[in-house]
Amino acid sequence: MSEINSSAELLEALLGNQISESLSAEVRTSIYQTRSLLNSKSTLEENLIGALSNGRSMVISGSAGGGKTMLIEYVVAEVKKLNPKINLCVTKDLTAIPGDRAKYLKESNIPNTQFIIAANEGILRTQEIREYLPNVWESLRSLQNGEKINVVDGIIVVDIAGFDPVSTSLVGILTNQEIKKAVLFSEKNCEHNHGFGCPRTEALELLDEKMASLVVELIKSAFGSGEVTYRELWNFVIDVLLGGTCSGPVPSSVWFWRIFKGHNSISTKLNSHHRPTILPMPEITPHLFRGDWQKIMSIAFSKDYKFVDPGATPVGLSSATEISDLLLWLKIQTAFAIRASGGTKPVFLGERTGDLERQVLREKRLDLLIQSMNSYFWRESRVSDKSSLSLWIDFATQKRSKRSKSLIGLGNFPRRDLEIRRSFVVANLLGGTEEGNRAYLKRKNSNSASLELTTHLFAALIQGRPISTERRKYDDADYALRRFFLQVFDKDLIEDQDVIYLLTTHSVDSVSETAFRIVGKSHLERVKR
Amino acid sequence: MAKAKRDSLDSPNPSLFREIVKSRLPLIPAKYPTKPTPIHISNNFISHAIGEGSLKSDLKNWIREQGALSNLFNTSGENLQRDSDTLQELIRTIFDSDGNVFQSMASPYPISERVIGRDPSDDGYAINLWHSIGVENRDLITDLLKAFYSETGESSSLKSLFDLLMKDSQDGSSRNESSESYTSVGKNVGEIIVNGLSKKLDQPLHIKLEVIRQLSTLLGVFVVLGMMFDACAEERNLNSETEPHRILGTFVYTGNIGGRSTIEQKLSMLAIMSLRDTIERSYLGLNKVFLGMVSDLEKLSPSRDWDLFAREFATKYTSGQSAQEFIKIMNHFGKEKMFELVESIYPMTHLRSGIRSLGTKTGFVWPSRREDPRLVLDSNFLTALVSFLGEEDMPIEDFVKKVYDKLGLILGYSGVGEESIHQLERIAGRRLEIRDLLLKSERLLSSRLVSAGLARQYSDGSTALLGGNI
After folding, report:
1. Which of A138, A491, B9, B132 places its Cα 20 to 30 Å from the Cα of B271?
2. Residue A194 pLDDT level (bands cut at 50, 70, 90)
């Protein structure tokens, strides 16, 4: 296939948003992004191909649009290249099989024949399917709850949704040369902006690995541990690269504009989370307003990143909306150029609020998490050096306008007996240790207590426990914390087993802790602190 | 003088009205609709089940009398005073976090069977709820509560403190016997309590704490439901065997209170309209019950004069001073104005006030004032509902259906019948796309359950409840 033909085909498929179904195998392979593994230099695909070659069977589970079909097509094609005579039962979507699916599995001689099946999770839960796919549902559930599963010769189970496509694939997709060629192909006749050039293609030149990594960071801080599916990601990529128009004083076709202003779910979230309109750039903004491009290029752009001229200046426009949009357009471009060149500022708003979550989850800062949880009840910033987790109980039953003034402490749970544990994504392969995108605070080596570390929970921790019950946004997270305390409590692990604590709020910024020791089942004494 | 008398006969007299209709509407609010709290109800309910505690008087002293706990310290002087005061604060935090313990009457946090006691502040809700759940459920709940409160042999600093405080006390007194049978709402409510409690036995003290909070919240919610349920059934001529959703079918706002997205606003509006409709139906039912009682007695002796009839009617349903008062009221309004009688002595605002007041205290209604009220799932109620109705691995669809089947409350789309959807369409005047909204409501519920640590959302978007003892 000629280069022009493959670009045209890819462009058509991208614009039609039918990636896996409509592309030729050649083009599909050229844009397929393998999933890198954290614990080895290999990819998921390589390991699955190896396992299939060794006669293992597997189930790929995940949400609609999660990339199951593409994964199966890719690995099966590769396995057949290695072993053309392989007798493999391939089911790209068990959910789509009409009629009695259990009968289908039985007629396919599953589980006694080698198979690879993709299915949504819901269907794997049903009793009749579980009969033919023994332990698959249980393995899947355990993986997602952070329990390692590694049974030699068991059916391999892959929770594809557990892989974070943003971290593992987005940089590769945004910088994929075939896709770039398709975008350039789409603009081959562009005569926009009276000879100033095509903003879309000029902006595309800026989009290197560093820029793409910055986009990944912005998405990660906006979504936290929330799932982004492959379908959402592809919709985002297609919209960012091919959406909008080059016309007008504010070209909406450039990727850095569409990152926030595109018409897709990820851009909507990025815009509301990072609020680029309040991006702080006090020293640069006046130059941007006046259209002093020479100055801007000297401050923010280098030989690696060439300034994309919009063809207009804010000061030369009359519409207030256009002025503010163009200024934003320029600010975002400049901010990306500075950050990709190694600058630490300007920082998008959402990057700051996601700071705690990032540190706790990426660096596994259990100490920071414990401090934040303790501070939440103390309503103070993270200054506590306490290394154990205080377990507080709120005895209030009635909903009042104010929360309880005092809380009772069950004791302090030692940090050494807690752990931040990730979900896992592959059962019965790779030692079962490949980590996924969910995270939990758990009692060490136990599943008896578990607190899912979500973006919502971190936001609650940053806010602190409100005194007024009118502020209910984080009530559910507050309950989740207290529920975890009750579940994790263990009299044999708790420090100071015979001490009972009282936390009293005197005012918004005045909280005190008192403790009594129960001595010999006969009397009490105040614990000196 | 005559004017004053006329005013008193025209004035609201909800306690008297409830006494008259009590056999059919046992849970409508009485005189003080804003007074009862969940802890009042749970204290009385548990007391009716297993009797009062032997330490109920001592507890009042521990909390109210300065220095009452000083004998628990070996210190003296200023330190003793300070320590004793702080310990009193600690004891208050445990047993009186809601502020319902006074010298005259007390409703402490019923974490120990030894401190619970009866308290008239609940306006009679607990005894009426207790009666309404039926004799079989009452027996089961009595056994379960006894088992629930029994020692488990575990230890913690909290348990040690309890042992220290209660070392010389006795077990509680015997319970009240009752032979009345269940009402329509009572049967399901009784079953929910039985099923919930039976999963929560043999728990350590710190888990019991949470179970008691959940039970107290649910008992309050059940009373609010009872205020509407029986009257709505009467309004539609439905009997106690009728499925709850055919009687209520009330939509509950499942999102975060204060949510301001377009969808949340639409759902909130639907919940406001749905509760308004339910209260109006309840009030019509309440009228219907009273007018039916009058009509039934009239049929037995149609020719009697009104004064004689009023006497017979009043003494049939009440006695003494109350009967005398009701005779006067009936004579004041006369035979043709029975509807006006109900509106005067039991206005709809009174019913609404009872629902709103207890509802907001349990996290079942919001807000407590200003805006129109709606049914909600505040965190404290949501967590209690999941704990008592949910099961490990239960898909959210099954949970939504179970709440609909057992309590007649609509949380989402799963399992909701056409009849209920048509009812919501009628209420909303086809301004809202009900099916779509119910699907969105279920999604909101799903995300709230995950945020509260009660459920896990799996890869294909399905949500299932987590297990655990709370």
Report:
1. B132
2. low
